[in-house]
TrEMBL record:
Gene3D superfamilies given in the database record: NAD(P)-binding Rossmann-like Domain
One Pfam family this sequence matches: adh_short
Protein name (database record): DHR13 reductase
SUPFAM superfamilies the record matches: NAD(P)-binding Rossmann-fold domains
Length: 240
């Protein structure tokens, strides 16, 4: 109703539940014959554990999107040319990933913030490895930094911190429409195919931090993510 576009449809999806991700993918594939663009945009910065036993931020920001992308990949390929846009963050520069402890809350007093940074590094590496595996399919993917955006991302900020943090949000963070520009650029700009797997900031191609360019880490993250979401051996992954 707000958009005035009768073609817009709402379908429920809870990325904190792998069961919900699978149910959504099944419903979408049964109802929609076409899929040309997937934007993995949802994000959260909070402590806590999901029903699947993973840290909340890491599952919502990475594992849920990873599973969703895999479950929809065959449809994206059949509708090619198509694109996947993964919303990351400049916070990836502080990410630290160890595939053997993936999905578990990091130790320390800043666990929730570190978990968020780790998930954003995973976003950039996901796009990098996905592009490698999609070569020759006409499905391309891009990681983007939307900037500091005034959304509900920080609604779980501790009450004691909000009087200090929220004024900074209102003063220095951009509004959602502005924050969406780089995602829309990667979704619609022509002739971006040769940059598949790359990182964009402020609608421009940028080099992410060195750990986000580590192909071995990207491959290890992929393989660990497949195991954690139950794709290995389940016959659901379109890639070997």
């Amino acid at each position: 109703q707000e958009t005035g576009n009768p073609e817009v449809r709402f379908m429920q999806l809870d990325l904190a539940s792998l069961r919900s991700v699978r149910a959504f993918a099944s419903a979408f594939l049964s109802q929609e014959p076409h899929l040309h663009l997937l934007i993995n945009n949802a994000g959260v910065s909070a402590g806590g554990t999901t029903e699947d036993g993973f840290s909340l931020s890491f599952q919502v920001n990475h594992l849920g999107h990873f599973l969703l992308t895999q479950l929809l990949m065959e449809r994206l390929q059949s509708c090619a040319p198509s694109r996947v846009v993964i919303v990351a963050s400049r916070a990836h520069c502080a990410g630290r990933l160890r595939p053997d402890t993936l999905g578990h809350p990091p130790p320390g007093p800043l666990s929730a913030f570190q978990d968020y940074c780790d998930s954003k590094l995973a976003n950039v590496l996901h796009a990098r490895e996905l592009a490698t595996r999609l070569q020759g399919t006409q499905v391309t993917c891009y990681a983007v930094n939307p900037g500091f955006v005034n959304t509900e991302l920080f609604r779980h900020t501790p009450l004691w911190l909000k009087p200090f943090f929220m004024p900074l949000v209102w003063l220095f963070f951009c509004e959602a429409a502005e924050g969406a520009q780089t995602s829309l650029f990667c979704a619609t700009q022509e002739d971006l195919e040769r940059f598949s797997g790359r990182y964009f900031d402020d609608c421009r191609l940028q080099e992410p931090w060195p750990q986000a360019r580590d192909d071995r880490l990207a491959r290890a993250l992929w393989e660990a993510s497949e195991r954690l979401v139950g794709l290995v051996g389940a016959g659901e992954s379109p890639f070997p």
